[in-house]
């Protein structure tokens, strides 16, 4: 069953499209991005909507504005992807995303600490299971700040956060580790007991460093891969 993405605001569609062009290299660092006027005409929206789309990218640090000149792709920028960028495999078109639960819960200490909340604060939790043709690929649990509880979380999480609270994620902090799967994880990921899983913890923060969301992504064996590329001149282990 494919998750219903819901209606995505037009400015998020525009900013998402520009973000994809930048990620693919079609808009290289230093390149000028379409102006508000050009975006408004191309997408048939009012100029304030186009301006909001550019501002979303500006808050993420992806683009920079030059007074009297225009808006340009930043030379270096953080990118928050909805899917895990370095761990696991990219989602296939045939992958299903099933919402297992969306509810208000008392936040575990790890969650409230990451979100900068008082201990035992109430947060919105959403748990989803992703699966492909070969079976479950990952279990994702997201916890959101208090202001995001205005509605059930539809579609892509980062888009909901921006629409619900008017703030975008500019920085993502990640940590990765391995442990044995819990009974709940083993049941959803169809694992024998005991089984080791790769666990990614991610905190999304806005441009002011305020935490917006904390999530845990659990990968079953065979579905978690760390991909990196670096120069051999800076890799001491490679030269040994």
What are the salient characteristics of this protein?
two-stranded antiparallel sheet; disordered N terminus; alpha+beta; 240 residues; six-stranded antiparallel sheet
Taken in chain order, the helices and strands follow as HHHEEEHEEHEHEEH
What's the gyration radius in Å? 19 Å
Unreliable residue stretches: 1-6, 79-85, 89-93, 148-155
Shape: elongated
**What percent strand?**
25-35%
Q: Which structural class fits the helix and strand makeup? A: alpha+beta
Number of helices: 7
Distance between the termini: 49 Å
Helix content bin:
25-40%
Overall average residue pLDDT: 77
Main sheet attributes: strand count, strand direction, barrel closure? 6 strands, antiparallel
Strand arrangement, major sheet = 3-4-5-8-7-6
Count of extended strands: 8
Structure description:
The structure is a single chain. The chain has seven helices and eight strands. It is of the alpha+beta class and 240 residues long. Strand 7 (196-205) and strand 8 (211-219) form a beta hairpin. Helix 1 (10-23) packs across helix 3 and helix 2 (36-43) crosses helix 3. It is elongated. 30% of the residues are buried.
What are the SSEs and their pairings?
Layout: H1 10-23, H2 36-43, H3 47-59, E1 63-66, E2 70-73, E3 96-106, H4 109-115, E4 122-132, E5 135-144, H5 157-165, E6 171-180, H6 183-189, E7 196-205, E8 211-219, H7 236-239
Antiparallel strand pairs: 1-2, 3-4, 4-5, 5-8, 6-7, 7-8
